[in-house]
Prior knowledge:
Keywords: Lyase, Pyridoxal phosphate. The chain has 379 residues and is of the alpha/beta class. The chain has 2 domains: 3-86 and 158-243, Type I PLP-dependent aspartate aminotransferase-like (Major domain) (Aspartate Aminotransferase, domain 2), CATH 3.40.640; 246-378, Aspartate Aminotransferase, domain 1. It is built from 14 helices and 12 strands. Helix 3 runs parallel beside helix 4 (99-107). Residues 73-75, 98, 100, 141, 145, 170, 172-173, 192, 194-195, 204, 206 line the site of pyridoxal-5'-phosphate (PLP).
Amino acid sequence: xxxxxxxxxxxxxxxxxxxxxxxxxxxxxxxxxxxxxxxxxxxxxxxxxxxxxxxxxxxxxxxxxxxxxxxxxxxxxxxxxxxxxxxxxxxxxxxxxxxxxxxxxxxxxxxxxxxxxxxxxxxxxxxxxxxxxxxxxxxxxxxxxxxxxxxxxxxxxxxxxxxxxxxxxxxxxxxxxxxxxxxxxxxxxxxxxxxxxxxxxxxxxxxxxxxxxxxxxxxxxxxxxxxxxxxxxxxxxxxxxxxxxxxxxxxxxxxxxxxxxxxxxxxxxxxxxxxxxxxxxxxxxxxxxxxxxxxxxxxxxxxxxxxxxxxxxxxxxxxxxxxxxxxxxxxxxxxxxxxxxxxxxxxxxxxxxxxxxxxxxxxxxxxxxxxxxxxxxxx
Length: 379
Ligand SMILES: *Cc1c(COP(=O)(O)O)cnc(C)c1O
């Protein structure tokens, strides 16, 4: 069955009791048992909940994994994966990773003795050289943020596996519509379901998908022990989001491609960072690794100052000035003052985050309206 058919049907069988084509939301915290010590499928909602199980079944299938777990946020999912590690273990991450992941590893996981190295995952030789004998986990993101760098997932799987480490991929930006890391050799896929999976800026959630039953069991043990699971209403909203995921991502990517081409020709735009453009350094790899389209996230650099970029992000009307991404409404932000403000100026320069950079999350509005909005703002 095709992706969009599975997104609607797998994990969404009608309610066996009533025939309701949409399953009820199970709010129960506990489940009555027939006999003491003999457990039915569900016993307590931290350990397992029917509404959450439906969403987990759908996303595991769409990513091609043996099992999935849903969490309260993306960061709860990431911290569950990190909690598999013990003191002395080493994590190698790409340098273009989500700021919250950077903070977790450098300021929280380090307290438990977990060591972290950042290296440029687009330079495979440098990345492989940063691996250590005690590297247990390699963590990458593709496309990265905010420069939309593309990382070779299959090559990183080989690098990780050469020392017996697992490869985890934060697939939030690409979604399983465009990239399925497990097919490329990854062991764990992570999502902030807050973004494309929810898709409507109205739910927080996270997901881990495990390639094998063994990895799933290990993650499940930590998830159940630490307890940051996804609640029933959120699970329902995420299941609903998955049903339209492919349509949204494909249409948003189509609009993004056209906007990127238009921006690239704009006299006041110095540079557009979108993997769909042949000028992007990751274009060829993205064309191989992503399924026919390049996502709906992009950044561009104005031929101007910090103040000029600030003025543009403050004068759009349809593009809402906000962090986050992946929803039906388009968002705009200035990395230097918003998503990446915690970097000092020297670090921003080192990571290629210029003062004139603007990041877009392209939504489902009409191309013409989005173009007009950017035109009046850029002037
Ligand atoms: C938002 C985001 C996260 C964190 O997810 P939350 O749901 O905000 O906790 C992690 N990775 C990426 C790429 C994100 O965009």
